[in-house]
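input
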Amino acid sequence: MKRILVTNDDGVYSEGIRLLARELARFAEVVVVSPDREQSATGHSLTLTRPLRMQKLEEGWYAVDGTPTDCVNLAVLWLLRETPPDLIVSGINFGLNVGDDVTYSGTVSATFEGSLLGVPSIAFSQEIAEGFSFARSSVLAASFVESLLREPELPTDLILNVNFPANGAHGVRLTRLGKRVYRQVVTENVDPRGRKYYWISGTPEWQEDPGTDHEAVQTGWVSVTPLHLDLTDYRGLETYAAIAARFHALAAEGGGGAQ
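output
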């Protein structure tokens, strides 16, 4: 039987992870290692400045006082070190993780860490609107995972980001990341003790490009976006050649050039 590590960024008590783990347990051994509280928008952060605590809640369920990235590390490198998982599944997140937002998402970052540790990984997120259902999306997510595990061998660097529309889906589309402009604002206020505090907030404005994850979900399709961790801008290796040449000249003038 395949072993699946399940995590999220909404916390171990969220409905999305509970229903997802239950559906996955129908065909796989499931171990849940999840934050003990919400860790949304923590990105790919790793806790290095304090010790972490992991509490066993019930058989196969563990809560960690850290980030999703911490959870994946503790699970793969310690808890399951003798019997590593065949797959890491993150979610189901309360809210979409599409476009540029994947860089902030703790849900998606758990899959980044899985990939770095050599474990194929999938993130699932659910659009929130009237009529949405974690029950419906968890069944679909489990079917997706079960089908994927039938593959003879999954790439160890596999990362899939899956987003479910709120009100059912026409089907599945393979997509690329969308692009959004965030009208970000910072608001300053003063607390009752006269100290200043700040709120960061904003409203996303999406570019309506065909073929993107955002466009797919908004038109009623499940979006499946393959991701990878190589952030190299390969076009820039050519287009920035002149800038690189100037950098080289400056370094050489400063005594840093190769002799």
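quick obs: The chain has one domain: 3-180+208-232.
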